[in-house]
Design brief:
137 residues, alpha/beta, four-stranded mixed β-sheet, 18% helix, 33% strand, globular, Glyas_Bleomycin-R_OHBP_Dase, VOC domain-containing protein, VOC_core
């Protein structure tokens, strides 16, 4: 198939993120964190997958936890939480928390950052109001 033919078969617009995948030093430890702290549910993985992992889901959000190979050095867990680092953000509603407020033109988004067991940055936010205000029509 030529590159022109491939381009013709690409979707014209994306609907949503299906899932994110994280390499974990311990799938069990990460699974416990995402279930107990963020309320994710374990879902069945295809039995044909021949590597250790876990698929979790909540409200249309999917995360694939993948066991990191023992022969690969894991990055060091960051010593500080940095909101400018790579991270995944979840919209959180109806939960009180201390936050960072980011805003302009009367729209303020509250954000709370923390790490999972492998040092991946996680953000809880009420970002939808910013998205609705800033989307291009």
């Amino acid at each position: 198939m030529s590159s022109q033919e491939q381009k013709e078969h690409l979707p014209t617009s994306l609907l949503c993120i299906n899932h994110v995948a994280y390499l974990c030093s311990s799938v069990e430890k990460s699974l416990k964190f995402y279930q107990e702290v963020l309320g994710f549910e374990l879902i069945e993985r295809p039995p044909s997958l021949d590597f250790k992992g876990a698929w979790i889901h909540q409200n249309g959000i999917g995360i694939h936890l993948l066991q990191r190979s023992t022969d690969v050095d894991a990055p060091a867990k960051p010593s500080v939480i940095d909101p400018t680092s790579n991270h995944i953000s979840f919209q959180e509603m109806g939960v009180e928390y201390v936050s960072l407020a980011v805003g302009d033109e009367g729209v303020v988004s509250d954000q709370l950052y923390f790490h999972d067991p492998d040092g991946n940055a996680i953000e809880l936010c009420d970002c939808r109001k910013r998205f609705l205000k800033n989307r291009i029509k």
